[in-house]
Prior knowledge:
This protein is α+β, with helices and mostly antiparallel strands.
Amino acid sequence: MAIERTFSIIKPDAVAKNVIGQIVARFEQAGLRVVASRMIQMSREQAGQFYAVHKERPFYNDLCAYMCSGPVVVQVLEGENAIAKNRDIMGATDPKKAAKGTIRADFAESIEANSVHGSDAPDTAKLEIAFFFSGSDLCSRK
Ligand code: CMP
């Protein structure tokens, strides 16, 4: 299976709950490696650009306001089948529908404050990684 990289955000609700380490541990236990990581507070403009694909959705403005309401951890995860694996570990977008033992089932508050974001496909992973990281920010992990 191919080694992939995917983009991940630990959202303001999870940072506020002080569960960054517990979330990263779940990625590591599943065989994913952190190859870049940074804590940031997004500007409204940054959040708006990042989520531009949802611009026409009714939740867009609230989502952008939420994403810049507190610090987040942006990171790049690497490993076999990393994109799908990350999505399995996160669980469904709506924590009420997320499977037991997933990050969102265990930590998320609501569909908006849903603890984590993860890329949904290889092309979006590339774009999302490049949105926050330059090539020299990504470390090789062997
Ligand atoms: P995320 O994986 O970050 O991608 C887009 C985000 O939009 C999603 O997680 C949710 O937090 C949010 N979202 C998706 N659908 C809804 C909805 N119906 N109402 C509010 N927020 C939503």
